[in-house]
Amino acid sequence: MASSTKVDIEVDSQADSWFAKLGPGLITGAADDDPSGIATYSQAGAQFGFNMLWTVLLTYPLMVAIQVVSARIGRVSGHGLATNLRRHYPRWLLYGTVVLLLVANTINIAADLTAMGAAVNLLIGGPTRAYTVGLGVLSLALQVFVPYRGYVRVLKWLTLALFAYVGVIFAVQIPWTTVALRTVLPHGSWSAGYITTVVAVFGTTISPYLFFWQASQEVEELHAKKGQQALTKMPSQGPANLSRIRLDTSIGMAFSNLVAFFIMLTTAVTLHAHHITDIQTSAQAASALKPIAGQFAFLLFSLGIIGTGLLALPVLAGSAAYAMAGTFRWKNSLALEPQLAKRFYGIIVLATIVGLALDFTSIDPIRALFWSAVINGVTAVPIMVLMMLMASNPKVMGTFVTPMPLRMLGWLSTGVMAAAVIAMFVFI
After folding, report:
1. Of 116, 124, 362, 381, which has the most beta carbons under 10 Å away?
2. Does domain 23-427 bear CATH number 1.20.1740.10?
3. Cα 267 from Cα 34, distance rounded (Å)
């Protein structure tokens, strides 16, 4: 009995140790599938069926590369992206980037809160706007009042909400042979609608707020763990930490892209197959699923919207706060008490409140989300260029400059995003 207990303890310890290695990358990847992203993936599947699934195969390695680069910058330098931009590049470039990020994130917060409130309404009825406000307040309370280590655990467990979209496939019949064939050999087109949707998928998947969040979370982890220092000051900690970053980011982005794949797949075999091809919001997608795929699929899809929204809101508001704090040298950490980092927490509160306020104006949230995607796409390219330059700069990275394979993949990701932005302006 004693031997068995010892084995159980060792297994549990190994599992805890493995799970402990997952953090910034896992949360970042999961937050990418926010309600507005769910709407984009749902529209892709509803409009084009299986012929949009290939995008996930392409975005995964590109997303891993650029997120590993952002994480390395944070862990090696000990500073977030905005601080490194301020220290090494012209101020006008920094200010322009941060302003665009704030605008895009605030609009995204508004769209996500609207979708979450609508999802609650679908499940239990009642006042959608009251639910929207309640969820916004709940998210703020968690960010401001829950200590960092506890809050990170909450976010890590919230990533399980994404399994709702994997579970949906058990409620519908999937022609797996056709799926595999169309994923590898899609029937694409050069129509404006198809190109626009491809651009939207890329813009939703590779977003600037994810870069700022993951770099800053690496800095948070650095300060939270005793004995850890920036790798430029303590190179001996490099191998273990860079290995952890690769594992964490690869799993997080796999999670993100797998869920995107299943959302497209679910809407393809249900909505597209029944000629429902115009999906504007994630709540609309959930509602449309009910008469086709049944109550179980509807419940999973709706609950997933709420769970992923609660995961994405702090990433959107937090990345804006980290960017502003790095720009103006404010104290910034979710580990600090609010009274010790008033301006940092003030940005989190302000971004959420302004996002909520937008939901009570005459602004069309769908049009606002479109322009948010445009701003995200336009902003992502110069930020990615600057990140790649920083990652190869010994003044930023010391002896940990980006290795050539990662550098090539990172530049490829940047080039693809640049092509997507050009296509957006040509076809939209």
Report:
1. 116
2. yes
3. 16
User: Is-contact 170 265, C-beta < 8 A?
Assistant: no
Read off the pLDDT of residues 24-33 as tens digits, 9 standing for 90 and up.
787 887 777 7
Amino acid at residue number 151: Y
Please, what's the largest Cα pairwise distance for the chain?
A: 70
DSSP letters of 129-174?
HHHHHHHHHHHHHHHHHS-HHHHHHHHHHHGGGGHHHHHGGGGS--
Task: Indicate the domain borders of the chain.
Answer: 23-427
What's the one-letter identity of residue 192?
A
Q: Kindly calculate the radius of gyration of the chain based on its CA atoms and give it in whole angstroms.
A: 21
Neighbours of 258 (CB within 10 A): 18
pTM for this prediction: 0.87
Angle at 234 between CA 325 and CA 405, to 5 degrees: 85
Separation of alpha carbons 56 and 183, rounded Å: 9
- Over residues 101-119, the mean pLDDT reads 89
Task: Please tell me what DSSP assigns to residue 361.
Answer: S
> How far apart (Å, rounded) are the C-alpha atoms in residues 94 and 99?
9
Cα(306)–Cα(35) distance, rounded to whole angstroms?
8
- Taking the C-alpha atoms of residue 256 and residue 273, their distance in angstroms, rounded to an integer, is 25
∠ Cα 320 325 329 (to 5°):
160
The string of pLDDT tens digits covering residues 223-248 is: 878 888 999 999 999 899 999 999 99
Instruction: Name the band, by pLDDT with cuts 50, 70 and 90, for residue 421.
Output: confident
Distance between terminal CA atoms of the chain? 68
